[in-house]
Write a structure and sequence with these properties.
The protein has 12 helices and 10 strands. By secondary structure, the protein is of the alpha/beta class. Helix 8 runs parallel beside helix 10, helix 8 crosses helix 11 and helix 10 packs antiparallel against helix 11.
C-alpha cells in the first residue's frame, strides 16, 4: 500500500501550522448522492455545445484518470462508487490519493429534478455505513479488516432552529462516537443555512464560524474531524477562524461551476487567507479537460501561476490538445458569483 499525500501533508501542517505551505486538493465526485442523473455532468461536441450527460461508467472513468494523474490528495465518492473503485478495482492501493466516501446525505442535498427540499430545514439521514465503506459488508465481524475507504465526509447544515439543529448535532454525535470506536476518520462540512432568512445575510459567515467552534468545543482530539469544509467566507472571516485554532485545518468548497477564473481565483484567495484544503466538485467536473484543470489548480497553490495567468495557460493547453473551450478567453477570465450552498 502506497503512502498517502493526505497523511504527509496533514502531519506537516500540524507540525508547523504557521510555516507549512502544504495544500490539499480534493475532487468531490459524490454528486450522485444529491443530483441523481445530472451528477455526472455534460458531454459536449467539437463546437462546445452540450450533447448528453455522462453515463455512470464515464463518470467513473474520469475518476480513474484523475487518480492515475495523482495531483489530487483525496477522491470523494458515493459509497457505491467507492465499492467499485476502492474495494473491487483496488485503484488506490498504489496511489498517493486517499479514497473517501460521503458518510451522510442530509435532506438539503436531495436535489432531484422537481424537488422543493433545497430551501427547507435540513433533516439528518445516512445512506452509507462505516462498515460498508471499509469492507463492503455490514457485519461488525468484518470491521477490523479494512480494505476500502477509511475516510468520510460528514455534513451539517444549521438552520438556526433549536429543534432542527439539536437533531442535527445529536445525529453527528452518534456518528462521531461510532467513527471513533471503529477508527474511521472523517472531515466536517458545514454549509450556510439554506432556509431563507434564517440568519441575517451580514451575519451568515460569523454564524457558521461560531457554530463550528461551538460544535467542536466539547469534542476531544480523538473524535475531531481531520479538517473542515466550508463555503469561502471572505478574507477576514477565514483568517479569524484559522487564527482561533491553527490545528483546526480549514478547507473551502467550490460551489457551482462558474468560470475558470472563478475556480482559480477562489483557490488562490482561500490559500492566501489561511485555508489548507480545497474541495472542488462541479468546478472540476464541468471543466473541458479535468486533468488540465487540476494541473492548473496545483500550479496555483504551488505558486507557479497567478489566477489570471493560469486561465490563459489553461486555454493554451486546451488548444494544444485540440479541445474546444466553451467560453472565449475573455469571458472565461471574468469573476462571477457562484453558489455557496450545495444546490
Amino acid at each position: 500500500m502506497k503512502s498517502k499525500s493526505l497523511d504527509r501533508k496533514l502531519a506537516a501542517i500540524h507540525a508547523d501550522p504557521h510555516g507549512s505551505r502544504e495544500f490539499l486538493i480534493a475532487d468531490a465526485k459524490d454528486a450522485d448522492m444529491a443530483f441523481g442523473l445530472r451528477a455526472t455532468g455534460q458531454l459536449y461536441d467539437g463546437g462546445g455545445k452540450p450533447t448528453r450527460s455522462r453515463t455512470l461508467a464515464e463518470y467513473r472513468d474520469e475518476m480513474r484518470a484523475i487518480v492515475k494523474q495523482g495531483l489530487v490528495d483525496i477522491m470523494l465518492m458515493s459509497n457505491s462508487t467507492s465499492e467499485q473503485l476502492t474495494l473491487k478495482e483496488r485503484i488506490f492501493d498504489h496511489s498517493t490519493v486517499t479514497p473517501a466516501i460521503r458518510a451522510n446525505d442530509t435532506t438539503d442535498i436531495w436535489l432531484m429534478r422537481g424537488s422543493a427540499l433545497g430551501d427547507k430545514a435540513s433533516r439528518p439521514f445516512r445512506s452509507a455505513t462505516i462498515n460498508h465503506a471499509r469492507t463492503g459488508r455490514i457485519d461488525d465481524e468484518h470491521c477490523d479488516r479494512i480494505s476500502g475507504a477509511n475516510l468520510g465526509l460528514y455534513s451539517i447544515t444549521f438552520a438556526n432552529d433549536r429543534d432542527r439543529d439539536w437533531e442535527a448535532l445529536t445525529a453527528y454525535a452518534a456518528f462521531r462516537e461510532e467513527a471513533e470506536r471503529k477508527r474511521f476518520r472523517h472531515f466536517l462540512e458545514v454549509f450556510h443555512p439554506n432556509v431563507p432568512g434564517a440568519v441575517p445575510a451580514e451575519e451568515v459567515v460569523h454564524f457558521v464560524s461560531d457554530a463550528i467552534v461551538r460544535t467542536l468545543a466539547g469534542v476531544t482530539s480523538a473524535g475531531r474531524p481531520a479538517f473542515l469544509k466550508i463555503p469561502y467566507p471572505g478574507p477576514r472571516a477565514l483568517e479569524d477562524l484559522v487564527a482561533y485554532d491553527p490545528h483546526l485545518v480549514v478547507g473551502v468548497l467550490g460551489g457551482s461551476a462558474g468560470t475558470t477564473r472563478d475556480a482559480f481565483q477562489l483557490i488562490h484567495d482561500a490559500r492566501k487567507h489561511g485555508a489548507r484544503v480545497a474541495l472542488f466538485g462541479r468546478k472540476i467536473n464541468e471543466a473541458e479537460s479535468q486533468l488540465l484543470f487540476i494541473q492548473h489548480l496545483r500550479d496555483i497553490v504551488d505558486n507557479n501561476l497567478a489566477p489570471a495567468e493560469a486561465v490563459r495557460s489553461y486555454h493554451a493547453a486546451l488548444k494544444t490538445q485540440s479541445i474546444s473551450s466553451r467560453r472565449s478567453l475573455e469571458d472565461d477570465s471574468r469573476i462571477t458569483a457562484t453558489s455557496l450552498s450545495y444546490s
